[in-house]
Amino acid sequence: MYRPSSLGHKLATKIRIITETKKNYVEKSPFSCRYRQKSVTLQQDFALKLVMKRILFICLGNICRSPAADGIMRHLVAERGLEDEFLIDSAGIGSWHVGQLPDYRMRQCGQRHGYNFDHRARQFSSKDFARFDLIAVMDQENYHDVARQANSQADLAKIIRMSDYLRHHPGQKTVPDPYYGDTRDFEFALELLEDACEGLLEELTKSHQ
Asked: Which of 67, 95, 146, 160 has the fewest beta carbons closer than 10 A?
């Protein structure tokens, strides 16, 4: 499937900068030995945040698509033993469901596929641009809603579309909201998210090599 030519370059540049920052920190810091041992200090915590790939998944209400993407990506990362290299979260454009678990239909769908979707909904904030390296949206409406809160071109450059990472669904431009649909719609959304999360993780880990 077509992907913007700058996509891989952007991710590769980001990971290279993070990797170089980690290298310089470990080599120059007097805390380098304890850093390698992962002891808990403010300096180590700061360094750990620098080397992590920080991903925030976004959908409309943070009860269907984005918590599913959150759970799927966590699962994939854990399977590869990369938990220490990723910080993963999700949020919604609106505040309607703040504090709630994902929609029970999405949780049931996830359980059928071996996932546990237990994220508590929260609302996206412009402050999230500083907290995350990538803001992954589900559709064009999400993109515009997030982009309106960007404070700079650097913020805008962090926004990515999950559909750009689909490998097995050519022509699919969005991850549709299943909220008003039936079981088939939830299954399809999960199928797309599995595909896109695999593609995104492959892109990130490939850039890191």
From this structure: 95
Which pLDDT tens digit goes with each residue over 105-138? Answer: 999 999 999 999 999 999 999 999 999 999 999 9
pLDDT digits (tens, 9 = 90+) for 148-160: 999 999 999 999 9
Q: Which domains does the chain have, with CATH numbers?
A: 1-51 (no CATH), 52-208 (3.40.50.2300)
Identify whether 177 is a catalytic site residue.
yes
> Among this protein's residues, is 59 annotated catalytic?
yes
Is 144:26 a contact under the CB 8 Å cutoff? no
Asked if 107 is an active-site residue, the reply is no
| Strand locations in 84-124 (E) | 86-92
Per the residue annotation, which of 59, 64, 109, 197 is the catalytic one?
Answer: 59
**In Å, what is the CA distance from 144 to each residue of 2, 87, 139, 150?**
21, 24, 9, 10
From the candidates 70, 128, 139, 177, which is the catalytic residue? 177
Distance, in Å, from the CA atom of 94 to the CA atom of 123, rounded to the nearest integer, reads 6
pLDDT band at 47 (very low <50, low <70, confident <90, very high): very low
